[in-house]
Amino acid sequence: MGNASSMLTQYDIEEVQEHCNYLISQQEIVSLYQRFCQLDRNAKGFISADEFLSIPEFALNPLSQKLLKMVDGLNFKDFVAFLSTFSSKASLEQKIELLFKVYDIDSKGKVTFKDLLEVLRDLTGSFMSEEQREKVLSQVLEEAGYSRNCSLLLEDFVKILGKPGLKIEVEVPVD
């Protein structure tokens, strides 16, 4: 599985579907497999960071460098599991967990003010000054009951972002 010359069997499809908690349909898995094989230019069975950057939507994303650390070297099953987080069927908690991983720059299981500032810097570019970014982040953290000296854990992210009425939806085109 994952090699352009191999075929995806029904067993493979069902295994991948189970691996991604049935968030992706069998038809979508077949389409994703075709896309995966196109991206896996050397038919190695996994996609490198450079191959991911060949996806225009991914390359243009201001967070692409942070996402690359999560996707570099994914095999097909993990590729589908990663993309399943963007499905409308994924739970809010699954989406929040992905966001947490994006913000957890050093992968230590906590997000600091500095981490939040770095991501906000990537998102806003020259549209905000450093002073404005710090002020906005300090205010958001304070409103959520945290200070800029706190380190946020995944549970904190869930508490802040998992409020009723909050909806996080990002659809990723299959083709």
Automatic annotation (TrEMBL):
Q: Which GO terms describe its molecular function?
A: calcium ion binding
Matching entries from InterPro entries are given as: EF-hand-dom_pair, EF_hand_dom
Pfam families found in the cross-reference section? EF-hand_7 (PF13499)
Q: According to the lineage, what is the superkingdom?
A: Eukaryota
Q: Where is the EF-hand domain?
A: 27-62, 91-126
**Name of the protein described by the UniProt record:** Calcineurin subunit B isoform X3
Q: Which organism is it from?
A: Phoenix dactylifera
Source organism phylogeny? Eukaryota, Viridiplantae, Streptophyta, Embryophyta, Tracheophyta
**Gene designation per UniProt:** LOC103715888
